[in-house]
Amino acid sequence: MPATPFVLSAFGDEISPDPNEQFEVLARCGVKHLELRSIHRTNVLDLADQQLAELKKGMLDHGFQLSAIGSPIGKVKIDDPWPAHWQRFLRAIEVAHFLATPRIRIFSFYPAQEGESWDRHRSTVIERLQQMTERAARDNVFLWHENEHRIYGEDPARVVDLMRTINHPHLRAVYDAANYVLGGFDPWQAWLLTKPWTVHFHIKDWNRGEPHGVPAGQGQGRLAEVLADAWQSGYQGFATLEPHLQGGGPTGGFTGPERFPMAVEALNGLLLEIAKKTNQLKSIPLTKPS
Q: What's the confidence (pLDDT) of residue 279?
């Protein structure tokens, strides 16, 4: 592979619940970063301190670092009790500090009732994300908002609304092409709208109506165009594999240890083609985010 501005990471629980198997498969694939969502079928925010300490040691022993904490913050209904979720958010900050990553993936809440308009809840969404962002800045962490299917920020226009309204450097956007496909949005137009605030990619491709994802570049996510434009625009950051090749849902997805190398190979192939077309095989060094 030529040097690219994309540093590969992965949701290890796409491979296996066992962190050691995650490390083994990712090392064979040349991926040395994790986006930590769960181990042993336990969400990262529900891990005991001893489990976190063991995981941290395992990461150090195997030479892994974290791209982000893949938290479920904001992945609850907007009318769910806020004080309890706020405490969960504070736990996410604690975990990020302990595992030495300044980045936490978040969401912008599900509607109280399926299919209802967001008009009556917009102010609450803004207020909660504003509160979290201010606390994140105080504690020196950054919140990366993912465009998850069905949340307030599933719509790229509402992602822009969040970014412009809160207008804070500690809140930025994650771009997930497959989620835009699932939501019925054009991934290219979504990219153009959210590009000024996008600092991170989740690499998942999809075809509408299918029950699982497909390798990068084989779906309707327009990843070749989006990643090429990001490259040419000077993007430097993570591209985190979340293939969902055997299915996925609100709590995560699964690809398996046998198929995960296929997902890595597909992304590397896509980046190689982009490099050839843009004549940047040697001009852009591999850059790791700080």
A: 67
In tens, the pLDDT along 134-160 reads: 999 999 999 999 999 999 999 999 999
Q: How far apart are the C-alpha atoms of 44 and 37, rounded to whole Å?
A: 5
Q: In whole angstroms, how far apart are CA 183 and each of 10, 64, 92, 143?
A: 23, 33, 27, 22
**Cα–Cα nearest to 73, from 141, 163, 156:** 141
Amino acid identity of residue 66, one-letter, is L
What pLDDT, on a 0 to 100 scale, did the predictor assign at position 252? 80
pLDDT single digits (tens) 82-109? 999 999 999 999 999 999 999 999 999 9
Question: What are the start-end ranges of the H helices in the chain?
Answer: 19-29, 49-62, 82-98, 122-138, 156-166, 177-182, 187-194, 223-232, 260-277
Provide the phi-psi class of 150: left if phi over 0, else alpha when psi is between -120 and 50, else beta.
left
Helix-strand-coil percent breakdown of the chain, rounded to 5? 45, 20, 40
In sequence order, which residues have a C-beta less than 8 Å from that of residue 211 and are 6 or more positions away? 247
Name the class of domain 6-277: alpha beta
| Amino acid sitting at position 212 | H
Distance CA 249, CA 96 (A): 24
- Give pLDDT tens digits for 175-219: 999 999 999 999 999 999 999 999 999 999 999 999 999 999 999
Q: Where are the domains of the chain?
A: 6-277
32 Rama class: left (phi>0) / alpha (psi -120 to 50) / beta? alpha
Which residue's entry shows tokens 């509160």?
A: 131
Distance from C-alpha of 139 to C-alpha of 69, rounded to nearest angstrom: 15
Separation CA 108–CA 72 (nearest Å): 10
